[in-house]
Design brief:
The chain is α/β, with parallel strands linked by helices. The chain has helices spanning 6-18, 41-57, 69-77, 90-99, 150-161, 175-182, 205-212, 270-273, 275-287, 289-292, and strands at residues 31-34, 61-64, 83-89, 107-123, 141-143, 170-171, 191-198, 217-220, 241-247, 255-269.
């Protein structure tokens, strides 16, 4: 998947305004935006999208919370679902499209949400010190919340990039519950850490827990030099980039983390919206792009 810059994205959206392909006529029903868990980043973006479409087009839009990227894509692809707009990670889109190649013809990218990076959280004492300690799965799995989440897809991609991690499974365990268990006197959960995928500058409950309890938790670095890429595999195949990012707000509360990042995307299902409505939605979001689609993280 090619990375879209903000400038390129605006050019593509402008092109959509001038010439959209022939699509089915818009259906006379309310559309829905599939986002993420309540009060999460995707949920807040979806609310902003709904407000923009209501203000600019008086278009009634429902919000559908979800387990994350994979569930969003399934809803978007389901012709019986009201979901016509969905938020997703670029790696989840690549993974879904590979399993459902016909989906490639159904969607358009309305916008990009910037970097979404993997943050692997472990206990600060007695936990894994590097990715190498996770080889073979002896220390336990990685909590990803829900198997339909973007975090589950990202961990699966990491095990694909480095087969030595393949025996460390993604566990459908709440990230917060797993983090609490990591430092419990009597462990109950078979996990060595928890994975969160989000914008670096967006605060979430797991990230806040780490930032406020650095003596108990740490971020495990994810470095390209620590991953044994098979000869036929590229970390760029799903839009991944290894980079150092800053977490937190304010210079005195910032942590720099080496990790793997993908991109957040807003998609529309062309046939559910129809030609006229897709043109209107594209125009409305193009006009509000500086507000809806962030230039930085």
């Amino acid at each position: 998947m090619h990375r879209l810059t903000h400038t390129t994205l605006l050019a593509l959206m402008g092109g959509l305004l001038l010439a959209l392909p022939s699509l089915a006529q818009p259906v006379g029903r309310t559309i829905a935006i599939s986002s993420g868990y309540q009060d999460g980043y995707y949920d807040s973006v979806a609310r902003l999208l709904r407000a923009t479409l209501l203000m600019e087009l008086e278009l009634p839009v429902e919000l559908e919370q979800s387990a994350g990227s994979v569930e969003n894509l399934a809803r978007l692809d389901d012709p019986s679902s009201l979901t016509a707009i969905a938020l997703t990670q670029a790696d989840a889109l690549a993974d879904y499209s590979r399993a459902h190649p016909e989906f490639e013809e159904k969607y358009v990218v309305l916008g990009e949400l910037g970097d979404e990076c993997a943050f692997l959280i472990t206990t600060a004492k007695g936990g894994p010190g590097s990715l190498a300690d996770l080889h073979g799965g002896a220390m336990g799995g990685i909590a990803v919340g829900d198997v339909r989440s973007g975090a589950a897809v990202t961990w699966r991609y990491l095990t694909h990039l480095d087969p030595r991690l393949a025996e460390t499974p993604a566990e459908p365990i709440s990230v917060i519950e797993a983090m609490l268990d990591l430092n419990a006197s009597q462990r109950r959960m078979p996990v060595a850490g928890a994975l969160v995928v989000q914008r670096p500058r967006a605060m979430s409950a797991p990230i806040e827990m780490v930032m406020s309890n650095r003596q108990r938790f740490r971020f495990l670095p994810i470095r390209e030099t620590d991953i044994a890429l098979p000869a036929e595999t590229s970390s760029a195949e799903a839009g991944y980039r290894f980079k150092q990012v800053s977490l937190g707000i304010g210079s005195d509360q910032t942590i720099k983390v080496e990790t793997l990042c993908t991109r957040g995307l807003v998609l529309a299902e062309k046939h559910k919206l129809g030609e006229a409505r897709l043109r209107d939605v594209t125009r409305a979001l193009y006009g509000a792009s500086s507000t809806v689609f962030p230039r930085s993280n």
